[in-house]
Amino acid sequence: MSEGVVDQRKPLRKRWWFWLVVAGIPAVFVALFVWLALWLVVSDEPLGADGEPTDCAGVLDTAGLTTLPVEQSEAECTEGGFQDAFETVDFTAPQADVDAWLADELPGFEPVTESCTDADACLEISWDEPNAPQDEGWHLDIELTEQGDGTTAVSVMVFTV
Predict the structure, then answer these.
(1) CB within 8 A of 18, min separation 6: which ones?
(2) Distance CA 131, CA 83 (A)
(3) Are the C-beta atoms of 60 and 89 separated by less than 8 Å?
(4) How many CB atoms lie within 10 A of CB 99?
(5) How would DSSP label each residue in the chain?
(6) Alpha carbon distances (Å) from 80 to 59, 83, 90, 113, 148
(7) What is the pLDDT of residues 90-137, one digit of tens each?
(8) Per-residue pLDDT at 143
């Protein structure tokens, strides 16, 4: 092939498909970015932080608990998680029943008020603490919120590690 034929070819920047590729690659990235942004804005819990309803008996077993101060049908139990799996039990019971339940289920652990963020009192127990109800791989958070009518809203959350 002679050098004259190669020299007569159009430069790359003068070809239509070159500009299609140049415009197309960033357009794909912009479209993906817009889709991700919309998904994060529109979704209630885009990373799975919202739980799905589950059986309360399984949650109690995971948490190392045997009973609740209310019937299991009165409690709302969920499971979920994105990177850290979690299970929750939420219920409302009379304050005296909650106190007796905590003393029976978690002897040696007392609710504290100073380190709680959204609750009146809370308990945080890890598997490596003495007298913990499970022997490895979980963390238990219990939040207690007084309702003002002699009842307490209880939120039990167990994270598996």
Answers:
(1) 12
(2) 27
(3) yes
(4) 15
(5) --HHHHHTSPPGGGSHHHHHHHHHHHHHHHHHHHHHHHHHHH-SSTTS-SPEE--HHHHHHHHT----SS-GGGSEEEEE-SSS-EEEEEEEEEHHHHHHHHHHHSTT---BSTT-SSSSEEEEEETTSTT-SSSSSEEEEEEEEE-SSSEEEEEEEEEE-
(6) 11, 10, 14, 27, 30
(7) 999 999 999 999 999 888 888 888 888 888 999 988 877 766 666 666
(8) 94
Over residues 44-96, the pLDDT tens digits come to 665 555 678 888 888 888 888 889 988 888 899 998 877 778 889 999 999 99
Both structure tokens of 138: 């979980």
- Which residues, at least 6 apart from 19, have a Cβ–Cβ distance to it below 8 Å? 13
Q: Do you know the residue count of the chain?
A: 161
Distance CA 91, CA 126 (A): 22
